[in-house]
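Reminder to self: keep the SMILES exactly as supplied, no canonicalising. Ligand is pyridoxal-5'-phosphate.
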Amino acid sequence: MPQSILEIDLTALEHNVDYLRSKLTPGVKLMAVVKAYAYGSEPAAVAQKLMSLGVDYFAVAFVEEGVTLRDAGITAPILVLHPQPSGFDTIIERCLEPNLYSFRVLQGFIASAKAKQQQNYPVHLKFNTGLNRLGFKKGDEPKILETLAATDAIMVRSLFSHLVASEDLSERDFTLKQISDFKEIASHMLEKLDYKPFLHQSNTSAILNFPEAQFDMVRAGIGLYGYGNNPEEDKNLIPVASLKSVISQIHTIEKGESVGYNRGFFAERQMRTATIPLGHADGLSRAYGKGKGYVYINGKKAEIVGNVCMDMIMVNVTEIDCQEGDEVEVFGKLSSASRLSATIGSIPYELLTAISQRVLRIIRE
Ligand SMILES: *Cc1c(COP(=O)(O)O)cnc(C)c1O
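Structure tokens returned for the bound complex:
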């Protein structure tokens, strides 16, 4: 095994698509969110598999991510969630579909589309219903409609919004207000347009918790990759990515000796440590050091001893029957990335997307 690998299980991906689809009202489209290297996995292989499963749409955050998918032969429509005007020419050249989230980008994109002699170029309009991150606000509809009426260079394919706390049922009232505000905005737009853009507002947790917010399409990210933002839903999904490594060396440490940089750990008794070729340069944050994080070796939990190095960690294997060369699982089917990330107050989104490109991706069907 080369140092550390990230195994990508496409059968697990298929299971997760089936599970999320089972939650959808018939006819609701599925958009697969494959931003950030498909949540740290492998965007080309994952998107090709998703395309073979018939997902309707893809979403990426940035223009270059859309270009990567086009280069990988993805022909399905691709929504770019967060474009800058500097990327508009590439968007048009590669048939990507921009989210237009402000008057500045709306007008900028109309100018780019006109300059490239486009007619009815598909775009998406985002409305801010409480996240206060990107989007037009309620009340902008008349001015947007006026801008749209003055050009035939673009055509609005969809209207959308994003929920703030769909995974948190204590914020249910806030979410319901976001849903009703979005309905109201959409009705103002649909009333005045002579064609019908489709609507979408749900991420993974909204698919699971708010069936009333499915509209015409849902945008699934983390659920595709096997995490449901709560332990119950995690059981219904299968992690797609498994971070695996190997034991390079085993040391016997005597009572009173230290382990690792800055003497981050002192042995209180004689013990054994295993050195693993995986460090903060691979995406395992230094915050996992000093006993917070752990790996699994031969089915047993081995906590990280001392500080995480750039290319290595040392783990406590005193009570574990293991040898140099044995396989190590950092997260995956045995050891969930949601539990591991929680040990440092983080979330699986961050742990998965942090795995650096140095870690070899291996695709398994
Ligand atoms: C990332 C993202 C999603 C996916 O969210 P998950 O919680 O991963 O399902 C959906 N919509 C937008 C706008 C996003 O930025």
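Points to follow up:
The mean pLDDT is 97.
The chain is about 30% helix and 25% strand.
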